[in-house]
Amino acid sequence: TFMNGISEFRVLESQIKDKLQLEHVIIVSGDSDEQQTVKEELGKACVQFLNTIVTSNQTIAVTGGTSMAEVANQMKPLHQATNCTFVPARGGLGEQVENQANTICAQMAKKANGNYRMLYVPDPLSEESYHTIIEEPTVKEILQMVQDAKIVLHSIGDAITMAKRRKASQEVIDRLTTQHAVSETFGFYLNRHGEVVYKARTVGLQLADLDKAQYVIAVAGGKSKANAIQSYFKLGKSNVLITDEAAAKELLEGY
Ligand code: BG6
User: Fold this and answer.
1) Residues with Cβ within 6 A of ligand 1?
2) Whose CA is nearest to atom 8 of ligand 1?
3) Residues 6+ apart with CB under 8 A from 45
């Protein structure tokens, strides 16, 4: 049974805000695990929120994944902001093309009437390649833009689901299991206390960079992501959460 009155969501939103210590929480109706239309609503809510905060000439760093792909699908011209640039927060050639940060950035920029830049690096990377690639001038330039971004849009994943999707080795998966990894964001795997238990070697945004951004907006819904969301927010790195009713209710019941 889903609630539908706005006021009921206001209560749920403020409960989540208190629980996760957040500045803004937006909740849409339903469960995005069950219905794709709910993911679309998450995307719309994100675009709407973005429109209220974005100003001209800003850089917006964006990650990959299906939630972000839906934000791109729902993107609209940013009316009060001109000359904004979308940059991929990380490399991501390991994902399917439509879920890669590069693809999503390009689509967002096109629909928002903005600019975009690309980051052509595999994710994750070997130790040797990592050190060479981050010295490439074009890569360096984009990384600088990513680090200076005032707005970051990202999602949060369940740790094991994401490790498998990224084709992590059995050794890594075993390690994540032993260390009780619950969530994954930006290549960082966290336990339920929000402690980093494993880090994939990725080029792009690092957790420390998030402190400089004005708005770090997490878009993550579905009952199955409740524990992941809770774990990620223990870190306190994002100040906005856009989620759905099912995740929110499950979150309130959790530890
Ligand atoms: C991405 C994040 O935005 O979304 C990942 O960079 C996260 O860290 C992923 O795990 C979740 O993907 P999805 O498809 O569930 O939105």
Assistant:
1) 63-68, 154-157, 162, 184-186
2) 185
3) 26, 28, 242
Distance 187 CA to ligand 1 centre (A): 9
Dist. CA 14–CA 16, nearest whole Å: 5
Report residues of the chain scoring pLDDT below 50.
1-2, 5
CA distances from residue 103 to 4, 45, 124 in whole angstroms, order as listed:
34, 21, 17
Closest alpha carbon to 130 in 27, 217, 200 = 200
**pTM (2 d.p.):** 0.95
**ipTM associated with this complex:** 0.97
CA 48 to chain centre: 16
Closest Cα to residue 114, out of 150, 141, 78, 149? 78
Instruction: For residue 152, report the distance from its CA to the centre of ligand 1, in Å.
Output: 13
Residue nearest to atom 10 of ligand 1 (CA): 157
CA of 185 to the centre of ligand 1 (A): 7
Ligand 1 pocket: which of 156, 219, 238 to mutate (most atoms <8 Å of CB)?
Answer: 156
CA 4 to chain centre: 26
Spatial distance between the Cα atoms of 162 and 230, rounded to a whole number of angstroms: 16
Calculate how far, in angstroms, residue 172's C-alpha sits from the geometric centre of ligand 1.
Answer: 18
C-alpha–C-alpha distance, residues 115 and 106, integer Å = 8
Task: Return d(Cα 45, Cα 49) in angstroms, integer.
Answer: 6
Residue 237 corresponds to which tokens in the numbers above? 């790195």
